[in-house]
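Hey team,

Sharing the CoA-transferase subunit beta run so nobody has to redo it. Sequence (237 residues) first:
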Amino acid sequence: MTTRAEYCVIACAEAWRGDGEVLASPMGQIPSFGARLARRTFSPGLLLTDGEALLVGPDGRPEGWLPYRRHLTMVTGGRRHVMMGASQIDRYGNQNISCVGDWERPTRQLLGVRGAPVNTLNHPVSYWIPKHARRVFVERVDMVSGVGYDRAVGPYHHLRRVVTDLAVLDFATPGHAMRLASVHPGVTVDEVRAATGFELVIDGDVPDTREPTPEELRLIREVIDPAGLRDREVAPR
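Structure output:
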């Protein structure tokens, strides 16, 4: 039986389908497992990094050298696809990882803007949100860290998808408002709606997130994550 966490790994892996030779930069356990799965299966051209100065294979072994100056060249030229997190995200993909509440007197200080503006304006970006909730999917973010479609400029801006523990969402609509692309098996459309603080675009019958192949399940369970760390991020259901 496929677990919810395994559907999330598959959904994250699909974010990099068709990217070709780009630098995959996943943030978080499940996105990392997804990137490694994509590299081992349908996206063999992906470049993976150790986060410092090396390119590595899906087994973690060094494959090449990626000094920071070359990393920055890739970042600003559309040759990277990062999957970030979001403390808040709105219907057009504006992301907040900086603070909650009014900027002058926030109720909670978070990471700060970090590299989110550069990421969202200069190369494709996806998001991984392990807990789909109304406090995350908000009508209006308190602070714009990553830039959404209603504020976008530049030729490389492309928000690919949002993966959560409930569903996969994208911006494949005429006005680039967030659309419910699929629900993970066992989740209903009404559950996703109830956990979202704005009205999602829903085009007819929403499909289930695709099933992993037997080989993909084997890779996830025996090669990529034999310790079962995925279940710590998304509990089995």
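Helices lie at 4-14, 29-40, 68-75, 116-122, 189-194, 214-224, 230-233.

Ping me if you want the raw files.
A.
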